[in-house]
Amino acid sequence: MTVNMRGKVALVTGASAGIGRATALAFAQAGASVVVSDVAVEGGEETVRMIIAADGQAIFVQADVSRESDVESLVRTTVKQYGRLDYACNNAGIEGISLPTAEYPTQMWKKVIDINLTGVWLCMKHELPEILKQGGAIVNMASILGTVGFANASAYTAAKHGVVGLTKVAALEYSAQGVRINAVCPAFIATPMLERAGMLATAEVREMMGNLHPIKRMGEPAEVANAVVWLCSDEASFVTGHAMLVDGGYIAQ
Questions:
Q1: Which residues does the annotation mark as catalytic?
Q2: Which residues constitute the domain of residue 112?
Q3: pTM reported for the whole predicted model
Q4: What is the CA radius of gyration of the chain?
Q5: Number of domains observed in the structure of the chain
Q6: What does the CA dihedral 228, 178, 127, 12 come to, rounded to 10 degrees?
Q7: 48-96 pLDDT tens trace
């Protein structure tokens, strides 16, 4: 892409690996100063080193998005360091576990909802006042499971449906004030999250996962990151309240 974000500041949560890291790198490549955030310090600091090695600007701020005090401090540190906030990608999330609805543990349900849904709301709650000062954009990370059901993933599916709905509501509230708010809905992307779930274990499993998509492969983190950066850019100036599928045709089936 030829997006120019020089002089802008982007915040990316869950940026220690996978889609979050790729998104932080893509913002930096476009010229933005990037605030990399995650609970995982080592991975987050490595993302910063990668950006700096490519002549970009970035800092790392540890934050648990399910804790409002952490989110408030994250945004405050961003503005203290760079003087403004233009873009945010609220990407932090966890996969939960795979069990039928009636067997799903209550504490795990609460944890998934707290991070994947409430965390997005808390981030927007504290990001919006800063972005409203000069205008900008927010992209929330949803999923194909924000648009369809998936057996044995009740908490994750409910949270991602919630992210899509929350995105639409916020877009209605703030688009006329200069803040566009969209969501991205990836299908199966080759990330550490899929690796933890055993979906990248062997070449055979990877092929099986890829064949779930009409494009006959899984996505790469950079392909999702490119969508995020485009949605934040002026090239998407008339796009708001949209849940963009980046899914290799999965939902078209």
A1: 156
A2: 9-194+222-243
A3: 0.96
A4: 17
A5: 1
A6: 20
A7: 999 999 999 999 999 999 999 999 999 999 999 999 999 999 999 999 9
